[in-house]
Every structure is written in C-alpha cells, then in structure tokens.
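Re-running Transcriptional regulator, TetR family to confirm reproducibility after the cluster update. Everything else is unchanged from the original entry.
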Amino acid sequence: MPDGTEAERPRTRIQQRNRDLILEAALEVFSTHGFRGATLDQIATEAGLSKPNLLYYFPSKEAIHTELLSGLMDNWLDPLREMEPDGDAITEILAYVDRKLQMSKLYPRESRLFANEIVQGAPRILDALQGELKQLVDEKVAVLRDWTHQGKIAQVHPYHLIFSIWSLTQHYADFDVQVRAVLGDEEPFDEAPAYLREIFLKILTP
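Result of re-run:
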C-alpha cells in the first residue's frame, strides 16, 4: 500500500490523477487555514474523495503537507537562481524583483503555504532553509558584494536587500485580501511592477 512516498510500482493514470487531486485540494486548504487549522476531512471534501481513499495515498496530514512543501521549495528558489553574475547588475536585480512579483501573482496559495510554515517555525523545511536556501542566498550575496565593490550598484547590505525583495513582492500574495480591500477596484499587479522597479532602482543606483 502506498505510504506517502514513492510507490514501488509505477502509478496508474487514476492513481496519479487522485494524488494530483489531493495535492491541489490540500494546497487550497492549507493556504487558507494553515497546517494546524486544516483537517484531512477538509482536504478529502475539497478533493471530492472519501477520507479512506485519501489515506490510501497519504498516511497523514503531515505527509501531504511535506510533499507540497518539498515541491514548493525548488520552485521558490528558481527566480534567484536565474540572477546571472555576468549580466548587468541593476538589470539582473530588477529582473529578479519582477520574477518574484510574478510568482506572487501566479502562485498566491503557494506563497501563503510557505509563509504559514515559516510563521510556525518551519518544522518541516528548516533543514532546507538552513541548507539549500542559505547556500543559494550566500552565493548570490557574494555576487552582490562583487557588484558593489566594482561600483555597479550602490552600497547596500546584500542580505537585507534580498529580504526586502522577498517582503515587498510576497506581500501581494500573503496579504492579498488586505491589499485588495484597500485598493478597491484597482488590480494590484497593474501598478506594482513599475512601483517596485522604481524603488529598487533608486536604492541600487550608485
């Protein structure tokens, strides 16, 4: 019987479909209620499956949550990986800002899932934060410091620059309800790209 890890035999089309349904439903439930507030019954209902059927594919709520986070982490790091050391410094950083904002626009539930995990102390992804994420950030910080030393960007604290990019872009996903309540009929992502580019251009220009 499947145990939430890779099955010994290749999955049938129906098995893969049901796993996808469960993960999609879980993303909706977890991003809305957080890990603690979510239940297997809610996920099963959202997926249109019985709870016993769900448990055939995943043995626990934590197994589903861990699977979602595992796939999310790799996608979450891709925009930073694309920042090229040999490119124009300001162009590369602004492009990173644009990519992060686009992630918030296209994947708001994933952003909220990630934020909820961090708020809870990151019990399921702390190793990844201290390992893969930190290694990548350290690598890009070295690039930012090199650009600073060459006079290509202004003197900025590289780690806090990255934190600022994260907070200003992910805010649009994590606080979507608040943003839309304040803006009313205005679409947040119509003006946000130009505004953020202007902010970071001012910060980065030597």
